[in-house]
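Handover notes (outgoing to incoming on-call)

Open items:
1. Flagellar secretion chaperone FliS: sequence verified, structure written out, both below. Nothing else pending on this one.
2. Nothing else urgent.
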Amino acid sequence: MFTSVSSRSATAYKRVGIETAVDNADPHKLVVLLFDALNQALGAARIAIQAGDVPAKCKHINHAVRIFEEGLIAPLNLQDGGELAANLHALYTYCVQRLTIANLKSDIRIIEEVQHVMEPVSSGWKQINGSGPAYLQPV
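Flagellar secretion chaperone FliS structure tokens:
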């Protein structure tokens, strides 16, 4: 029911580390952090499904959906971003739809599908290393 002091301390330390990373990040780094958080949420959802932990599964899938909706879809500049922004919007929206189904069916294969689809996007984003894409709205 209660967590140990060391566990709470570790969680607080981790939260401060993440907040510091976010506070000090440029827009490119923020997207990298979002992709990392997305991958962690999807991995945790898979583990929760395997363990039969429905509340944890829902929590982690909902977190992944929020990352898509609030962190990846919302900043897309569909007016100036051209075909790339439109394609990313369609891909992210598809992933949200698939995660909704994964949540309803507790289907690990769908989560793995989303991870598989997102891996090249995440990897490509990390490789561009901060060159300013036009498909994001200015911060």
